[in-house]
Amino acid sequence: MDVYVVEGLSTPLLSRPAATALQLVARLEDVSLWRALSRLQEAGVTLNDKCEFSKSRIKFLGQIIEASGISADPDKVSAVRAMKEPSNISESNGEAERAVRTIKGILKKSSDPYLGLMAYRAAPLANGHSPTELLMGRKIRTTVPVIPSQLNPACADIENLKRKEQRYRQKQQQNYNRRHRAHDMPHLQPSDHVWVKDMLQRGTVVSTADTLRSYLIETPRGTL
Questions:
Q1: For 129, phi and psi rounded to 5 degrees?
Q2: CB atoms within 10 A of CB 4
Q3: Whose CA is closest to 129, among 161, 82, 176, 97?
Q4: pLDDT tens, residue by residue, 139-166
Q5: Is 174 helix (H, G, I), strand (E, B) or coil?
Q6: Angle, to 10 degrees, between the axis of helix 94-109 and the axis of helix 113-122?
């Protein structure tokens, strides 16, 4: 595996298998490195020539790992901060746009992005449970004081959760339909008069098209 040995950390980071490299460091005087590689050899781990040893600071999966701790890679964080919000997207992309705004808001308000994300994951949803509760079956400890009994594992009632989610989605649908005046429309029949919004002209239905709820429309400019 590729092995990154960081000064001050007792556990090396491993990634992919390769040929053993214990013999290559036999001449080194770094005792901690020798011990780390000895443990790898005992575990049957193999290394390749891409390995880096005795590094005081490395970047790994968007994080910077060093002896003082783990922090976010500024290059990755700046890419999210600089991301522009879409200005001409369809409503089907609304959730993605909302997710971008939420993450950007967390990064702006919190000096530590990890604490901000932790607070976001611990915040209850509309169903009364936080994302971590639904994923792990328990609440997580945050910077907000909480009595120990609140951290005991407790699985959510799945059936009750499904009912709450169903009611919440129905309420969202009703509010959307009322706000946009959406309602079921009857199927059009040949000779029905319609308004072609893109062309700002009236037209007449000729027949149905091959796709669902699509029609051939006769307009002064031709058949659509």
A1: -120, 145
A2: 19
A3: 161
A4: 888 888 888 888 888 888 889 999 999 9
A5: helix
A6: 130
Q: Read off the tokens for 150.
A: 């609140």
Question: CA–CA separation, 151 vs 131, rounded Å?
Answer: 14
Q: What is the pLDDT of residues 47-67, one digit of tens each?
A: 776 777 767 788 877 788 888
Estimate the crossing angle of helix 94-109 against helix 74-81, to 10 degrees.
Answer: 120
Q: Could you tell me what percentage of the chain is helix, strand and coil, using 3-state DSSP and rounding each to the nearest 5?
A: 40, 20, 45
The residues, ordered by sequence, that sit 6+ positions from 181 with a Cβ below 8 Å of its Cβ are none
Asked whether 103 and 80 are in contact (CB, 8 A), the reply is yes
Amino acid letter, 164: K
Q: Where are the domains of the chain?
A: 3-71, 73-85+98-140, 193-223
Alpha helices in the chain (DSSP H): 31-42, 74-81, 94-109, 113-122, 131-136, 158-179
Can you say how many angstroms the Cα of residue 168 is from the centroid of all Cα atoms in its chain? 22
From the list 89, 112, 139, the residue with the least C-alpha distance to 101 is 89
